[in-house]
Design brief:
mainly alpha, two-stranded antiparallel sheet, 5 helices
Length: 120
């Protein structure tokens, strides 16, 4: 099993959409930047600040919870796992390498945005 290919495929399945713009990529990016506990888990509230850093938009915990729930579904390759129950729900990446992979994607995207700005 090629772990790198598994991570790439899971990321693609989690972010692909038939609609125009989607926040899945930005939410996953926020997950990779979120402050975590000793078990590498985070809450929806932990994503508010990183999401603003990535997207420049304010977001509510409720809207993040919607995306987190979808990212824990088979439709999105269960890229995240739920830990805990009820009001103590925390999340973590299913694949430990995913966090690093997503951070790399963010760096590539930032570099691309810088390049695009230079062309204007």
């Amino acid at each position: 099993m090629n772990v790198n290919q598994t991570v790439r495929d899971a990321y693609q399945k989690a972010t692909i959409t038939s609609k125009g713009e989607s926040k899945f990529e930005d939410v996953i990016g926020s997950c990779s930047l979120a402050k975590t506990d000793e078990y590498e888990t985070f809450t929806a509230n932990d994503l508010i600040e990183p999401f603003f850093e990535i997207k420049g938009e304010k977001v509510t915990r409720e809207s993040l919870t919607y995306y987190l729930s979808r990212l824990c579904s088979e439709e999105r390759d269960n890229i995240l796992e739920k830990v805990g129950t009820s009001k103590n729900i925390r999340y973590r990446f299913k694949y430990p390498l995913m966090k690093s992979y997503v951070r790399l994607k963010l760096l590539q995207r930032e570099k691309l945005n810088d390049e695009a700005l230079k062309l204007e």
